[in-house]
From TrEMBL:
Keywords assigned: Cytoplasm, Ribonucleoprotein, Ribosomal protein, RNA-binding, rRNA-binding, tRNA processing
UniProt name for this protein: Large ribosomal subunit protein eL8
Function (record text): Multifunctional RNA-binding protein that recognizes the K-turn motif in ribosomal RNA, the RNA component of RNase P, box H/ACA, box C/D and box C'/D' sRNAs.
Source species of the chain: Aciduliprofundum boonei (strain DSM 19572 / T469)
Acetylation as UniProt keyword: no
Name of the gene: rpl7ae
Length: 121
């Protein structure tokens, strides 16, 4: 059963693509990790893409993020675990991550955003 804040299903291969792109952005662009930081980047309109883990407990920690992203017109997606997301940004676990600068993952994120738009329709 998906958490209450998961508003659409993200296929496994798309999750993998997002995780790889996050890793590239971490190396060549600009990434913020941790829900407080992510929330600030969304509110300021600095986030270009937000990734939320599906296994956050309690779910209230990230429950506001999808709505906030939609309000601000910022694309977002989900990955299965916060451990996997954290690993890709160099920490033990991350409930959410925002990308401020795609860096060399720019083309990857363009594709990811298009795929997510198609899923949400």
């Amino acid at each position: 059963m998906a958490a209450i804040y998961v508003r659409f299903e993200t296929p496994k291969e798309l999750q993998e693509k997002m995780l790889s792109a996050v890793e590239i952005s971490k190396e060549t662009g600009k990434v913020r990790k941790g829900t407080n930081e992510v929330t600030k980047t969304i509110e300021r309109g600095d986030a270009k893409f937000v990734i939320i883990a599906e296994d956050v407990n309690p779910p209230e920690i990230v429950a506001h993020l999808p709505l906030l992203c939609e309000e601000k017109g910022i694309p977002y997606g989900y990955v299965a675990t916060k451990e996997e997301l954290g690993k890709r940004v160099g920490i033990k676990s991350a409930a959410s991550v925002s990308i401020l600068d795609f860096g060399k993952a720019n083309d990857s994120f363009k594709e990811i955003i298009e795929q997510i738009k198609a899923i949400k329709k």
